[in-house]
Structure formats: C-alpha cells, structure tokens
C-alpha cells in the first residue's frame, strides 16, 4: 500500500461521501488510472481497494438513524390500523344493512 506516491485521508464520519468525492475529483481531472485507492485502515483493520469501496457503499450513520427512526415511527401507525380495522368493517356493515332496510 505504501509504494509510490500516496494520499492520506483522515475521515471522522462519512467514509462513503469522502470516497465518492474523491472518485468524482479523479473523474473530472482524468486521473482515474494513476490515482486509484489502493487500500485503507479503518479502526485498526487493513482493507484492500475492494474492501474500501465496499465500506464506502454502506449507509452512513445518519442514514441508519433515519431508517431506524422511520421503522420505529411506523409501528404505532400500523398497530392503530390493525386495531381500528375490525371496528370499521362492522360499522360499514351496519350502515349498509340500515340503508337496505330503509330502501325496502
């Protein structure tokens, strides 16, 4: 990993965003062949270029928090629909029966 010219990135949170920005920079400047990601070290574990690319495609911490919050928020709504549904069906049936009796 440390052969030839090297660039070092010290990333706090958004690994995916940093890799995407770097790849965009390389594409815009035509340096893709000469300035590729050779590997990385994340929390003491060494990764090759494929490993770094795979990690960069994972959702960020904020995206995961939003997904969890959305899932937690959806549970009470679904529960309310399930609890409310049988009562609504009975109410519709009574209403339809009442309308049929009034027609006769």
Computed Rg = 28 Å
Distance between the termini: 87 Å
Portion in strands: 5-15%
Range of helix content: 55-70%
- The total of beta strands comes to 2
The number of helical segments is 3
Catalogue the unreliable spans. Answer: none
Largest sheet: 2 strands, antiparallel
Secondary-structure-derived class: mainly alpha
**How are the strands ordered across the major sheet?**
1-2
Query: What pattern of helices and strands is seen along the backbone?
Result: HEEHH
Mean pLDDT: 80
* Tertiary shape: rod-shaped
Jot down its keywords.
104 residues, 3 helices, mainly alpha
Would you write up a description of this structure?
The chain is mainly α and 104 residues long. The protein is built from three helices and two strands; from the N terminus they run H-E-E-H-H. A two-stranded antiparallel sheet has the order 1-2. Strand 1 and strand 2 form a beta hairpin. The chain starts with 14 loop residues before the first helix and ends with a helix. The relative contact order is 0.09.
Concise synopsis of the structure shown:
By secondary structure, the protein is mainly α. Helix content is 63%, strand content 8%.
Which SSEs are present, and which pair or pack?
Layout lengths: L14 H15 L9 E4 L2 E4 H8 L4 H43 L1
Antiparallel strand pairs: 1-2
